[in-house]
Amino acid sequence: MRHGDFGVAQAEDYVTTWIANHGVTLLRTNVGIVFFWFGVLKFFPTLSPAEDLAGRTIGVLTFGAIGPAVSVPVLAAWECAIGVGLISGQFLRATLLLMFVHMSGTVTPLFLFPHETWAQFPYAATLEGQYIIKNLVLVSAGLVLYPAVGATSTQPARRSVGRARVVVPAPEDLASAGSASAATT
Prior knowledge:
The chain has helices at 3-42, 51-61, 68-88, 92-106, 109-112, 114-117, 127-133, 135-149, 171-184, and strands at residues 118-120, 124-125, 157-161, 164-168. By secondary structure, the chain is mainly alpha-helical. The chain has one domain. The protein has a two-stranded antiparallel sheet. Strands 3-4 form a two-stranded antiparallel sheet. Strand 1 (118-120) and strand 2 (124-125) form a beta hairpin. The chain starts with a helix and ends with a helix. The model is unreliable at 177-185 (pLDDT under 50).
């Protein structure tokens, strides 16, 4: 092996180990920032582009029992709570449950208000529709975060990849593995 290849391999090992140690935390924190930010905007009338659609959606889902004057601030608080939970790392299972329930409601305008969410159903979403469809990424992030909640240094998260079962080591194990491989090279 050439000397330059060895340096690239070491750099890749370092980056991979760093991502393994910090990636889930970065994902959790950044998704939390998005939820908190979008939630705060809903506390201020007309700042959130989703405010009107969200208020009308909740009105339809509750058969008119909850109007936008109540539903939008409650939704804002809900999103802020999800954001704070993700950012702080506290009560993560409950936070992710709140997130999944919230996300199940956010998709409903695609069906309740198709004239506002689709320019050409089912392939050309309007800006509002795209705003909703991007929530697939947030749901995927939640699905990545959920198994990581139970991972500890004594009980690593277990993930299935295809038919293979993969054990994701705890961050401490990854750090010690990275330093051990660096010592042997």
